[in-house]
Design brief:
The complex is a heterodimer of chains A (425) and B (518). Chain A contains 20 helices and five strands. Chain A is mainly alpha-helical and 425 residues long. In chain A, helix 2 packs across helix 19, helix 2 crosses helix 20 and helix 9 packs across helix 12. In chain A, 47% of the residues are buried. By secondary structure, chain B is an alpha+beta fold. In chain B, strands 2, 3, 4, 5, 7, 8, 9, 10, 11, 12 and 14 form an eleven-stranded antiparallel sheet that branches. In chain B, strands 6-13 form a two-stranded parallel sheet. Chain B is globular, with a radius of gyration of 27 Å. Classes of the chains: A mainly alpha (425), B alpha+beta (518).
């Protein structure tokens, strides 16, 4: 006869951890439903094979994330895959719409440039002052229109703040991927002048002010390293020629070479003005990474592990128990901490009184020998497990990433299949 | 306090789990609310400046005084290439960082089609555009065309022109000249093939043209001719019969070489482009449109006019309802199946009586026997989408719509152009496209294309179907609006209004949107 203890033994579960398993199982079921709706239903459309491939990949990643506890590792796999799968589809869309990746006078005059999230901080002040968007994009009726991107950003910012940069951004996977290529770091940025961490704020300030002065998005015209793999102005005059050189240097430098040499996400951590802006938005978001000061041995493993230079020695030596607003909620520090002193948490620490109340309820249920009390205790513990930030944050953030990525990823997989099968798929 | 905060945060985090999927499922609503609340617009300097005035011109009037025809030449289309549909005048853009000049003035010319089979450098082949501006409203200026015997027209004595714009598809830039020839400048031409539009940017750097920056009102003579490199002013010569390099339909020697002209409100193109009878050899006298803020087609409707149109629309609706009541016959589904031995008729009868499940079952039965029956597939697609609308689960709804479009695609493969069943497919697919949220399915452009094709089929049938054609154009416009293509929507609305049988309801709905012909 199959008993609970036999199943538990098979799954290597210890007594008292059944509710954790059940909570993870429930989250996986919920995720399967999300994938059915958004990947198989919404994105797959006429390409069910590509949809199934992407859905199975995501399901596998999420199941492993939920049951192994290695949130950061599986997040990274998802994040890098998302970035790689985003661009073929995006480029195909551009070529389909305008015949090339170049952004010409016609597209600008028709306000048909895709609106990307990096432009948001640049456009906010002119939008507030003059109700105009200083970017030639469509207002609505498109996946990359101003209102749809603002809607996505608003929802994501309230939830995750700068968590956007490690869960949702379709660029971030590039430098995250490159930062993991080399085994050994050649340049140790952790020991560099701590002020370099503020470079992206300076960049944000500079970009916002200059954009305001010229009423145009200076970042897109001159500094965006991802122009190389998205769209670019026709290299038909000296200005565009110079800009093209800068784009190439930026991509090669801050997205490829520096991340390889430093094993840090240099573009995201030091250059991206949107990342700096999201740090400020993080003030209002719900989730944080919290440090248990009683467990922390100040070994600096978290400083070493943080890919965006958001954790620094000064912070760890201080008595602050939450990570800075720069934190991207990637979870690398949580995995790296040998003392298990770090964990996802809400902004407000669990009050002792509430802890005591929960403890009393649990004790009461444990004290009762009947089966009903055991079931209640199990459900109580499962609910407690589900309500923990460590369960809710990866689920919500992963869902967000899944939805944003699904159409692009499915289409890219279709393209890939089409190439492999010689157009038969 | 801290306990309350912690509970609120936990509740927020839980609600986010559902909010994520909810927000994406209702992105249309979110976009709508954001749009309504924020009321943002694209920085005008990118897109040519704010629109000062927009003039809509009748669709299909590219025949001058009513008789002109295009040259008989394999490259020339039969119509549309010289058919001006809209003329948009923007506010001048000043201190602008991006384009060629810091200060410029943009004018847009929208045509029914903008093809380039002859590889014109500017991106189009057929039209030559002349706009004569009376900038200052004073007597100084010219009453004759820039080049004698080019357009074969003259200008109103009240509004002599000061500057002339020349645009054709074979020069890399257009030109702007003063009436005395002392000022000449190149203008930028940007073709917009998606919207069949030519954007022209005039430099406002020197010369009297700068005065447009301070003028509240200017007058424009907007002239469209057929391009001919060798002809005077590049205006193709017209004869009685068209030739390979000659337009046809010219009754007189002094028939203006103008295929389309933007007439001021209340005037008729036919009258304006007819040479006067009393003086042999005299040219037709053109009248300009008055350009000032808010002028043009948007300002055509007064409160009284709107009330009158509403009354007409209501009366038309009432009459339609009365007809429907007498025609409506409710029968049981079994009875309908029995009295309609033809499977196609049966499905339509079931749908008309609201027996959608039965209709779907009947369609499935037929498709089992003949999976390539395009007509049944066209209706089965629509029924599948309807099944989605009644499904409770979002995933089921989305899946049903995708399935419906996959079925329509199969039907499309079996019903080529010219097949009598094609209209059913087009209307079914277009009606599903117009009903589903754009930000989820992106089907509005497909819907617009289907409605436009359906309109053309109706027009090709007979005059009795012109109302349906106008309705199809109107709905194509709504699809374009849903897709965020405001200008294309407006052009579809122009086509609806230019169709003779347009209903009072459509005229009223468009008047509410401020769309009306000059």
């Amino acid at each position: 006869m199959i008993t609970v203890s036999k199943i538990a033994g098979f799954l290597h579960l210890k007594k008292g951890e059944y509710h954790q398993f059940f909570a993870s199982f429930l989250l996986c079921v919920l995720m399967a439903l999300q994938l059915k709706t958004f990947v198989l239903g919404y994105a797959a459309g006429r390409y069910p094979l590509a949809g199934w491939i992407y859905a199975l990949f995501l399901m596998t990643v999420f199941v492993l994330m939920a049951f192994s506890g290695k949130t950061s590792f599986y997040r990274r796999i998802f994040f890098v895959s998302f970035a790689l799968l985003f661009f073929p589809s995006f480029i195909e869309n551009l070529i389909e719409a305008r015949g090339s990746m170049s952004l010409g006078a016609e597209e600008i005059a028709r306000a048909e440039a895709p609106f990307c999230h990096i432009v948001i901080p640049i456009t906010l002040i002119p939008a507030a002052l003059a109700r105009t968007v200083i970017f030639p994009a469509r207002m609505s009726g498109h996946y990359a229109a101003v209102y749809s991107m603002l809607g996505i950003w608003l929802v994501a910012s309230v939830m995750f703040g700068r968590g956007w940069c490690s869960w949702i951004c379709f660029y971030g996977g590039w430098d995250e991927g490159f930062s993991r290529l080399a085994r050994k770091r050649r340049i140790n940025l952790d020991k560099a002048d701590p002020r370099i961490r503020y470079f992206n704020y300076a960049m944000l300030m500079f970009i916002v002010l200059v954009s305001l002065a010229v009423f145009g998005s200076v970042y897109c015209q001159w500094f965006c390293p991802f122009k190389l793999i998205t769209e670019y102005a026709d290299v038909s005059n000296l200005k565009n020629y110079l800009a093209a050189i800068i784009f190439i240097v930026m991509f090669a430098g801050v997205v490829v070479v520096l991340p390889i040499l430093t094993r840090k996400r240099v573009q995201c951590g030091l250059f991206c003005p949107f990342g700096a802006f999201q740090s400020l938005v993080s003030k209002i978001s719900v989730y944080r990474v919290r440090r248990d000061l009683s467990k922390c041995s100040k070994c600096m493993a978290c400083v070493n592990a943080c890919p965006t230079l958001s954790v620094n020695r000064e912070l760890i030596m201080s008595d602050k128990d939450i990570m800075s607003i720069r934190c991207t909620l990637c979870g690398e520090c949580i995995t790296a901490c040998p003392q298990n002193a770090l964990s996802y948490d809400y902004r407000t620490r669990m009050p002792e009184k509430l802890k005591a109340v929960i403890g009393r309820v649990r004790e009461k249920l444990e004290g009762k020998p009947n089966a009903a009390a055991k079931v209640l205790l199990f459900l109580f513990n499962t609910a407690g497990e589900l309500l923990r930030p460590v369960s809710l944050l990866p689920f919500a953030a992963f869902t967000f990433g899944v939805i944003i990525s699904s159409i692009f990823a499915v289409n890219s997989i279709r393209l890939l299949l089409s190439v492999i099968t010689g157009g038969a798929a | 306090m801290k306990i309350a905060l912690r509970i609120v945060e936990t509740a927020l985090a839980v609600s986010f789990v559902f909010l994520v999927s909810f927000a994406f499922s209702h992105m249309d609503t979110l976009e709508f609310l954001l749009g309504k609340g924020l009321r943002l617009k694209t920085e005008p300097s990118f897109i040519g400046g704010e629109v000062m005035a927009r003039f809509l011109d009748t669709n299909g009037d590219d025949n001058g005084a009513g008789t002109l025809t295009y040259p008989r030449n394999e490259n020339w289309p039969k119509n549309g290439a010289l058919d001006l549909l809209a003329y948009t005048v923007h506010y001048p853009v000043t201190n602008n960082e991006h384009p060629t000049w810091n200060d410029y003035w943009q004018l847009d010319f929208t045509f029914a089609s903008l093809d380039n089979p002859l590889n014109g450098r500017a991106g189009f082949s057929f039209p030559v555009i002349h706009v004569y501006f009376d900038i200052d409203g004073k007597a100084g200026g010219s009453l004759e065309t820039r080049q004698a015997r080019a357009e074969l027209a003259s200008f109103s004595v009240e509004y002599p022109w000061d500057y002339m714009l020349h645009v054709d598809g074979f020069s890399s830039s257009g030109s702007l000249v003063s009436c005395d020839g002392t000022y000449q400048a190149a203008v930028e031409i940007i073709p917009d093939h998606e919207d069949n539009k030519i954007l022209v940017r005039l430099p406002l750097e020197k010369g009297g043209i700068i005065n447009v920056l301070k003028m509240e009102e200017t007058r424009h003579y907007v002239i469209i001719g057929a391009y001919d490199m060798t002809a005077r002013g590049n205006f193709m010569i017209l004869e009685e019969r068209p030739g390979t390099t000659r337009g046809g339909g010219a009754r007189e020697k002094n028939t203006p070489r103008i295929y389309d002209y933007l007439v001021p409100a209340g005037m008729a193109q036919q009258n304006l482009l007819s040479p006067p009878d009393d003086a042999a050899g005299a040219y037709a006298v053109l009248e300009p449109v008055k350009v000032r803020p808010g002028a043009g087609s948007g300002g055509l409707f007064s409160e009284e006019e709107l009330a009158r149109l509403k009354q007409e629309a209501d009366a038309e609706q009432q009459a339609g309802q009365e007809n429907n009541v007498t025609e409506q016959q409710m029968q049981g589904s079994a009875e309908l199946i029995a009295v309609n031995p033809d499977a196609h008729d049966c499905i339509i009868a079931l749908i008309r009586s609201g027996y959608y499940d039965e209709a779907r079952a009947e369609a499935e039965r037929i498709l089992e026997q003949d999976p390539q029956d395009g007509f049944v597939l066209a209706y089965y697609g629509a029924l599948t989408a309807m099944k989605g609308s009644s499904a409770g689960d979002l995933g089921e709804k989305v899946k049903a719509v995708h399935e419906a479009f996959a079925i329509f695609a199969r039907a499309d493969g079996h019903i080529p152009a010219g097949n009598p069943d094609r209209l059913d497919l087009l209307l079914n697919r277009a009606n599903v496209a117009i009903s589903v949220p754009e930000s989820v399915f992106f089907k509005s452009l497909q819907g617009a294309a289907d409605f436009l094709e359906a309109a053309q089929i109706y027009l090709d049938m007979d005059e009795d179907h012109s109302r349906q054609a106008a309705d199809a154009y109107y709905h194509a416009g709504i699809c374009y609006e849903n897709a965020g293509k405001a200008e294309r929507a407006e052009l579809a609305f122009v086509q609806a209004l230019s169709t003779p049988g347009v209903s009072a309801r459509v005229r009223y709905e468009l008047a509410l949107k401020g769309v009306g012909l000059q």
